[in-house]
Fold this protein.
Amino acid sequence: MSQKVTYTVDEAAELLGINRGVAYQQVREGHIPAVRLGKRWLIPRDRFHAWLDGGEGAA
């Protein structure tokens, strides 16, 4: 099975240990790297982990 290339905001919230409302707020404010696709927010997995590590893609 191939690995997902994006996370949902709910999945990112779970990984970060924060509630979904805070995660959505952080995404909207640009603190968590994400892209808007229609009405959905998607978080690119590579950018998310780079952001966590403080590397490229950090907001």
About this structure: Strands lie at 6-7, 35-37, 40-44. Residues 52 and 58 are 8 Å apart (CA to CA). The mean pLDDT is 92. The chain has one domain: 6-52.
